[in-house]
Structures are given as structure tokens and as C-alpha cells.
Design a protein that fits this description.
Two copies of one chain form a homodimer. Helices cover 35% and strands 25% of the residues of chain A. Chain A has 306 residues and is α/β, with parallel strands linked by helices. Chain A has a single domain, classed as Ribokinase (UDP-N-acetylmuramoyl-L-alanine:D-glutamate ligase, 3-Layer(aba) Sandwich). In chain A, strands 6-5-1-9-10-11-12-13-14 form a nine-stranded mixed beta sheet, sandwiched between helices. In chain A, helix 3 runs parallel beside helix 5, helix 6 packs across helix 7 (186-194) and helix 8 runs antiparallel to helix 9. Chains A, B: Keywords: Kinase, Transferase. Chains A, B: InterPro entries: Carboh/pur_kinase_PfkB_CS (IPR002173), PfkB_dom (IPR011611), Ribokinase-like (IPR029056). Chains A, B: Residues 19-279 form the Carbohydrate kinase PfkB domain.
Chain lengths: 306, 306
């Protein structure tokens, strides 16, 4: 029984109005696995890095109980590198550098020890690689969550439609939901997307929270209003990792557990943006997480007398 | 004991992707007073119309128990007229015509019978007129709510800052909160605005719901995701009217009652957008309102086990 997270493990160089970093460890699988590790102790990564990746960086995954057997290290090659600069509103950014490096011909390897996978998080990657991972698992996981982005809708829509037929939960943002469905109303968009395969759709709205759709049910999760967003990099991946990690912990898949999973994922994401990169989510305590979740409860609760 | 609503009473001609109207009755005070009338039976309007306003239009206020003694009818003059066309996303619109007419030299008259005012809703108008209404009330109401917009921040900021010193609740949208405070973060914006006078700040975010700020407390209210927005005209005024009407009904002013008032206001606003103008909010039943509020409860509730 394990939770597999596939996605990029990379170097990022980030510039925000508050400062800039050297190359730091980033990537969707990095953020998601760290977040998931606070809820579940059988988190396993599938990814690829170059030999520029340090042993210490791998150790810091293992220190969180994250299994890195599925993280390939390519000799003589370099890790995926992304550099970006956020604008003053912190909601938009310019990509300065994208070097695919090892990611260009990434062929995901699923070690035998990973075949006990019950929960699968397919981080944002080419739909073809996401499909390959599903195909290489001998037993269909209990829950498959897929994250994607508008880029794949633009250049690989057929592949994307192919893989989302096979998943349980799709996470995209509001603009992407509109693009994928051709509907402006998110209610109509969700109806169409739920017919494409996923049983659950999560629409991420950044500072406006998230919506969960399932059959005719809708849940609106708040985002924690923050005085300072220091660095938004990885917030979506942290959300996804916290989400699936929480579900793996409780072991129940239904609308009620998904609602809570969204709150826990949002709580983890709210920590992520408080410091550069993974700095804040590397060292959280259970007490910090509980307290943050309590803030979400207070933020959105009201009592209507009947 | 009464609830006074001051604002425009006007003719609107509205065009949306779904159709267009002839001149229909609109204006902030129209929407707000209709919404408030579902909660409180002592709603009184202050406003001005021309002689083109029909007796039947006034009767339809009175049919809702709304007192129109403070609605001046100017002989030989025409009512305020606004015409607008919504874009396909229904979030933006072009103003086609604005004829101020009677509004140009509006001098609000407070009849003696209105001096029992406990709740005062200052709808979006020039800050000077809003201040005049406060000055003409012999006793300071228990609660003063003020709605305004970016236009007055642009051309009459000093007047606006003057009147918001004297109120309890300010309602503006997120862009206006940023403009008024000079802060991008809504948490920082709220801190600054709460120092300008109001004890409560409501930031309206349209399809993303609303935020309520008071001291260090924050409440995030969801918006009901809708398949179809037919006509957004008056939704903000309907929200404000439902909000203050609910508070007048319960008679308690605190953070908990404000949270519920926002939910009731949002519920009324969600009806408003379902048809042109006031068509939908003219004929609601208590059962319809309760059912809609129940949808808001279901939409945002989750249970975290400790």
C-alpha cells in the first residue's frame, strides 16, 4: 500500500518583489511529496534528475520518509531547470529560462516495490508520460489524481483527453476548466468535464479558493486571506500533495473526505507561499497544520438558525 | 424604528447575450429595498424620480410594505436613466447611456416620519449626498452601511473619506479596496480601511463570494456557482439590501449576525441575476429564500474531526 507521486524534480531560480534565490530544489513532485508526507508514511516518488542533483537533496526526501527508488539519476546529464520572475501582484509571472534537460526524454520507471500503489498522483507532465505510468501499474490504483495545465490543452489535447478518461480526480484552474470545456460558467464547464472521465473535478482559483464538483454536488473551499504572499511557486503542487496525502491517510474516498482533503491541501499551500521554494513546508509540525486548518474552519463557518 | 434606504430609483435599459429590455425600473434603492422587504417590514426609501415615473411603479414598492414618503417626484423632470450592454462573460459591461436628469441636483429630504431610523443604508451616490442624509437624521442610527464605487474615489476622495469616518459598515469590491488603501493584499487593505472609520468592511468579489473583516476576524462567504447568469444588474444592491434587512430583523449587530447577513444577502443576489432587472426578486417566497440559504450551507460546510 503506497502513494506514488510522479512529477518534475527540478532546480528553480525564483525572483519575487521580496528577493531572489539561487538554484533551489523545486518541481511538482518535490512539493507534492513533501506535503503528502505529513499525512501518510508510504509516499514514493517517480521522476528523473541529472547528476547535478546532490545526495543531500535526495536525503532530504528520505528524511521525510519519502521513497526515492523511482527517482532516476541520469549520469552526465542535467536536471530540469526553470527560472521565473513574479510581477508585483504575485499573480502573474514571466518565465525567464526553461531547460528541459533530463525531462526531454523522460521514461518513467516503476520499481517492483511500487506495485502496491493504492493512491496515484500524476503531477503536471506530458499526458503521454502520465498515461505510461498508469499503464505500467499492474493493478489499477484505488484513486488516480491528475494535474495538468493549459499548455497540454494547446499542444496535446487528444493525449490529454485520452488519459483523463482513466482518472478519478482532475485538478485544473478556472481558466483551464473554461478552455477544456468551452463553457464560461464553471457549473456548465464542470458538467462537461465530468462526462470526460473524472468522477471529481477540482477547480483551483488561487486567492479565491477552490471548487469541488461531483455529480450534482458542489463544495466551495475558501482560501486563507494572507497579508503577504512571499513566493507562490509550488503552491498548486503542495495543494495536490496535501490533498492526496490526506485521502491516503483516511482511506475513504467520498465527497465528505474530499472536502476535508481540499481544506488540508489548502492549508499546506498557505504555508508554501510564506517562504521561498520548499523552505516553509520542509519543517512543519502537526500542531502548526492543525492550527492552520482551524483557521480555515473559523474563516468559513456560520450558523443559520432554522 | 425603521430601516432607511437611500439611493437611485431609476429607469434602466439592459442588453445581455440573452436579450434586451425596454426601460425598466431599476436603481440601487429599488433593488436594495425590495431585498430588505423580505426580512423587515419598516423599510423606507429616500430618493428622487421624475414625472415619467408611473404610479404603478410606486405602488409596487408599497405592495412590498416599502414606505415611499421620502421618494420625491419632480414635476416636469425626467428620472435618472442608465443603459448598458453586458459582454459575453457577463463580468464586464459597456455603459451606453447615462442621463442624470433629476439626480443632478438631488437634495435628499428626510420626512419627519423617518426620524425613527435605526438602520441606514447609504446606496452608491455622491459622498456629499450620503453625508447630507446622515446630518439630517436627528439621532444617529444604530447601524450605518455605505456602498460606494471607484468613481467617487477618483473624483471625490476627500468627501468620501469624510463620510466613511461616520459609518459602521463599508461595502466595496476587491479592486476598490485596493484602490482605496493602496495595498494589493486584501488583508493589508482591510487593516488600513478599518482605520479610516468603519468597524466592518465587506469586500465583494462577485462570482468568488465576499470577505468580511472586523478587528482581526475574517469571514469568507462563498458565492453560489450558477449555470446561468442572466442579468447581473442590481446584484450588489440586492446583496446590500438583503444584508441590512436581515440585520434589522435580528436586531443584533456583531460578527456572527453579520456573517449570516452576508449569506442572506448573497442568497438574494443569487436570485437577482436569474432574470432581467427586479423581475425575480419581486416575487420571492420565504420558502424559496430558506431553500437557497440551505444551498449556501451545503456549499461551504465541512466537518474536521479533531
Amino acid at each position: 500500500m503506497s502513494l506514488i507521486i510522479i512529477g518534475t524534480v527540478a532546480f528553480d531560480a525564483i525572483e519575487t518583489p521580496f528577493g531572489k534565490t539561487e538554484k533551489i530544489v523545486g518541481g511538482a513532485a518535490t512539493y507534492a511529496s513533501l506535503a503528502a508526507s505529513y499525512f501518510y508514511n508510504k509516499v514514493k516518488i517517480v521522476g528523473v534528475v541529472g547528476e547535478d542533483f546532490h545526495a543531500g537533496d535526495i536525503k532530504s526526501f528520505n528524511d521525510h520518509g519519502i521513497d526515492t527508488e523511482g527517482l532516476q539519476i541520469k549520469k552526465g546529464e542535467k536536471s530540469f531547470f526553470w527560472s521565473g520572475k513574479y510581477h508585483n501582484d504575485m499573480n502573474s509571472r514571466d518565465t525567464l529560462v526553461t531547460e528541459l534537460n533530463v525531462l526531454a526524454d523522460f521514461d518513467p520507471i516503476i520499481p517492483d516495490s511500487y506495485q502496491d500503489c493504492e493512491y496515484l498522483m500524476l503531477g503536471n507532465l506530458t499526458p503521454q508520460v502520465q498515461q505510461t505510468v498508469i499503464s505500467r501499474l499492474k493493478k489499477r490504483p484505488k484513486l488516480i489524481v491528475l494535474d495538468t495545465m493549459n499548455f497540454w490543452m494547446d499542444i496535446a489535447l487528444d493525449d490529454l483527453l485520452g488519459v483523463i478518461k482513466n482518472i478519478d480526480v482532475l485538478t485544473i484552474n478556472d481558466a483551464e476548466a473554461r478552455q477544456l470545456s468551452g463553457e464560461y460558467s464553471l457549473v456548465k464547464a464542470a458538467k462537461k468535464i465530468l462526462k470526460m472521465g473524472p468522477k471529481y473535478l477540482i477547480i483551483k482559483k488561487g486567492e479565491h479558493g477552490a471548487l469541488l464538483f461531483h455529480d450534482d454536488l458542489i463544495f466551495s473551499a475558501p482560501a486563507l486571506p494572507l497579508a503577504e504572499v512571499f513566493d507562490p511557486t509550488g503552491a498548486g503542487d503542495t495543494f495536490a500533495g496535501g490533498f492526496i496525502g490526506y485521502l491516503a491517510q483516511v482511506g475513504t474516498i467520498n465527497f465528505a473526505s474530499m472536502k476535508n482533503a481540499i481544506i488540508y491541501g489548502s492549508a499546506l499551500a498557505s504555508f508554501c507561499v510564506e517562504k521561498f521554494g520548499t523552505e516553509k513546508i520542509k519543517d512543519l509540525t502537526k500542531a502548526q497544520i492543525s492550527k492552520r486548518v482551524e483557521q480555515f474552519v473559523n474563516l468559513s463557518s456560520f450558523i443559520i438558525e432554522k
